[in-house]
Design goal:
Helices cover 17% and strands 35% of the residues. The protein folds into 3 domains: 42 residues; 175 residues, Jelly Rolls, CATH 2.60.120.230; 178 residues. Helix 1 runs antiparallel to helix 2. It has 443 residues and is α+β, with helices and mostly antiparallel strands. It is elongated.
Length: 443
């Protein structure tokens, strides 16, 4: 009080120097009364529910911290994402006997005629300089010293039988290829095709469906553009020796099945997994890999915390288990998506595909190396606050989060975390910092 009074007496003359002495004494008295009133208000105990904590800058509040273990009602891993043809690129990968993925591109409608300069339209009866063009992403690539592309004719009556398509990757159906030094590798790569194979498809009205297999002097994976994202593969060929005649360019298209149309569209180009031999581990859930894996986590946060407190911070604590795939220099990003499927959706594979956009209510993400281990944290403050604001859980989506790799099915990397069935000390938990809610009465 002494220092406050001194401060007031120093500041007052600067604002009232023109007042007569009797007026100044009256102002000083009013200031003294005001200061006494403020100090009296701040001296009240906030626990009584009286007084105004906004006016009491020095009044302390109770901040509590707790760790909820277990915080998950259950967790599960589902794989096969995204569905065929919905992937945003073609993953071409080879890692010994562990990983082998191929790219399938359909060119079911080839150009069979061309227009020479100053001449009538002519049928294609010869082809020259046949090429398959691939455009690769600069992100997430892993190149050894040499990379080899082998192209196969995988035209197969069955539309969706993966085993039947894979059976065509044999020497007798090889129709082109190329080996490139990594130092000379460029984002746009042209791979020569056998002119006789392309001409046979044109003359006999057959489908040109190519299977792309990659290999190298070491582990290799690349991401090629597709019809969904990036620049798709194309086939080009020259129909004439005339240098004035330009090469014909054909884009992916699938002629079957007629119905449903979305399946036909999805089969234009897609990634086919020939091998993924990464041993499963018990007591864990997984994210990433080929095909893509997603972890469905359903939370069980006590309502006395989520609904009856003011949450300051909520941190999900996960313990990573290493995967023998790649090195610590490799990394992947894992996003937490809010589950949007309502209680009527009981198929959790489908529920794991009905999710929010990345960054909605969960602003944080994980950057992990598949070969790493130890504690990882994910901030979920905004989402936990939103769950607490729900007035009713009836017809509301379950309190679920789906962990998904940012580059799902575009990289072979996979991250694993201990689950609710793992060792007790490694199970998922959540650290919550909160303030008990209070109701304030009228003084």
């Amino acid at each position: 009080m002494k220092s406050a009074a001194t401060s007031a007496s120093v500041a007052a003359p600067l604002r009232t120097s023109a007042l007569p002495p009797r007026h100044w004494r009256r102002v000083s008295a009013l200031l003294l009364i005001l200061l006494v009133g403020i100090v009296g208000a701040c001296a009240e105990n906030i626990d009584t529910g009286k007084g105004c904590p906004v006016l009491c800058a020095g009044q302390s509040i109770t901040v509590r911290d707790t760790v909820i273990t277990p915080v998950l009602a259950f967790d599960s891993t589902y794989f096969g994402y995204p569905q065929r043809g919905a992937d945003s690129g073609l993953l071409l990968a080879m890692r010994g006997d562990t990983i082998d993925t191929r790219g399938i591109v359909r060119f079911d409608s080839l150009l069979t005629a061309f227009s020479p300069p100053n001449d009538t339209i002519q049928k294609v009866v010869r082809v020259d300089s046949s090429m398959l063009k691939l455009v690769f992403s600069t992100a997430g690539r892993h190149l050894p010293s040499k990379v080899t592309f082998d192209i196969y004719d995988v035209d197969e009556p069955s539309d969706t039988n993966s085993a039947a398509v894979l059976a065509n990757f044999i020497a007798s159906r090889w129709i082109g290829g190329k080996t490139i030094d990594s130092s000379a590798f460029t984002d746009t790569t042209y791979i020569p095709l056998a002119d006789s194979a392309v001409l046979d498809k044109i003359v006999n009205a057959k489908h040109l469906r190519v299977g792309i297999k990659i290999s190298g002097t070491g582990s290799v994976w690349l991401r090629a553009g597709s019809m969904e994202t990036g620049t798709p593969a194309t086939v080009s060929y020259k129909p004439s020796e005339d240098t004035l005649v330009k090469a014909l360019v054909v884009y992916p298209i699938s002629s079957v099945p007629i119905d449903p149309a979305e399946v036909k569209r999805d089969l234009q180009d897609y990634t086919l997994v020939a091998k993924y031999n990464v041993a499963a581990t018990t007591g864990t859930f997984a994210v990433g890999g080929t095909p893509g894996r997603r972890a469905y986590l359903r939370f069980n946060i006590p309502r006395y915390i989520s609904d009856s407190t003011t949450i300051i911070r909520a941190t999900l604590l996960l313990t990573q288990r290493p995967v023998k795939l790649g090195s610590l220099r490799d990394s992947m990003v894992v996003h937490a998506h809010v589950g949007l499927a309502g209680p009527a959706v009981t198929d959790l594979y489908r529920a794991s595909d009905i999710i929010s956009a990345a960054g909605l209510l969960v602003l944080d993400s994980l950057i992990v190396s598949p070969a790493d281990s130890g504690l990882k944290t994910l901030e979920m403050y905004t989402l936990v606050r939103a769950w607490g604001a729900q007035t009713s859980l009836i017809n509301q989506p379950p309190r679920a989060v789906i962990l998904k790799a940012r580059d799902e099915f575009l990289t072979p990397m996979e991250a694993r975390f201990f689950s609710t069935s793992g060792p007790l000390a490694t199970r998922p938990s959540m650290r919550i910092t909160y303030v008990p809610k209070s109701t304030y009465g009228v003084p």
